[in-house]
Design goal:
Blueprint (H helix, E strand, L loop, with lengths): L14 E6 L7 E11 L9 E10 L7 E6 L4 E14 L11 E21 L10 E6 L2 E8 L11 E10 L12 E6 L7 E5 L4 E11 L6 E9 L3 H25 L1
Parallel strand pairs: 2-9
Antiparallel strand pairs: 1-4, 2-3, 3-6, 4-6, 5-6, 7-8, 8-13, 9-12, 10-13, 11-12
Length: 256
């Protein structure tokens, strides 16, 4: 398994199809999907997530292998990465990005990897999948839902790993602020683990399928944030602010 280096922020989701340009044998060791979710406060305002996908190959020669990549409409900063004996010969698309693009890759017969990454506009107005905002009573929630990959064409079956990186400690299941709610994961994938690293102040969510053949790596969980003031509370606060303003104005009038 080879994981790409992550360093952007935004929201990402992609689906791929595979077409071999030749009859040469190829071996896919694993695919890794990485999501790094960020937000500006505990109520998830401006939340976003970088998405990156990588494929690690064993020592089998192939040439002109085409991957079709579906790109979300609000994608930003699309780029490829590569290493070892695998080379991406197609240039990365430029904005405004097409809904689909093709990566042409080749191999020199040694082990290597390739992949792509991009982000999208963050925040409630432009986030799109896989993040949605909601409520649990008066608590803000962020729902993470990822899927959309189909793997009908690989032989032998590949190992598929999904990682999600969350700022802070999200290792307690429950419905209180700071807890997570595990909703679902696709058949064949392991039950997700939530592991906290105090050194980086990051929780890593991981699920995997050791022999992934077909379907989607659907992973769905909810994070519970801080309380959102109810409408009556907001009204009371506004009345209080107005009263304070009037009191201040009267005080200035008397002095004058």
């Amino acid at each position: 398994m080879i994981k790409p280096s992550l360093g952007l922020a935004g929201i990402i989701l992609a689906a791929t199809t595979f077409v071999a340009g030749t009859a040469d044998a190829q071996q896919v060791i694993s695919r890794t999907s990485d999501y790094r979710v960020t937000w500006s406060d505990s109520a998830f305002t401006g939340a976003g997530a970088l998405y990156a996908a990588s494929y690690a190959y064993g020592p089998s020669t192939f040439s002109d292998v085409n991957f079709g990549i579906n790109i979300l409409p609000n994608a930003q900063n699309f780029s490829y990465f590569q290493g070892g004996g695998v080379t991406v010969s197609s240039p990365a698309p430029t904005p405004p990005y097409p809904s689909t693009t093709t990566a042409v890759i080749s191999s020199d017969g040694t082990s290597g990897y390739w992949g792509w990454q991009y982000d999208t506009a963050a925040g409630p107005g432009g986030s799109g999948l896989p993040l949605t905002f909601g409520r649990l009573g008066n608590l803000a929630t962020l729902n993470f839902n990822v899927g959309g990959f189909d793997n009908n064409t690989y032989a032998p079956p590949i190992g598929y790993y999904v990682f999600v990186y969350l700022p802070g400690d999200w290792t307690t299941p429950g419905t209180a602020t700071g807890d997570y709610i595990f909703n679902s994961v696709s058949s064949g994938f392991s039950t997700p683990t939530f592991t906290y690293d105090p050194g980086t102040n990051t929780t890593t969510v991981e699920t995997f399928a050791t022999s992934f053949v077909t379907g989607a790596p659907d992973l769905n969980f909810t994070l519970v944030g801080t309380a959102i003031p109810e409408a009556p509370t907001w009204a009371a606060l506004m009345i209080g602010f107005v009263a304070l303003g009037l009191t201040s104005w009267r005080a200035r009038t008397v002095v004058a």
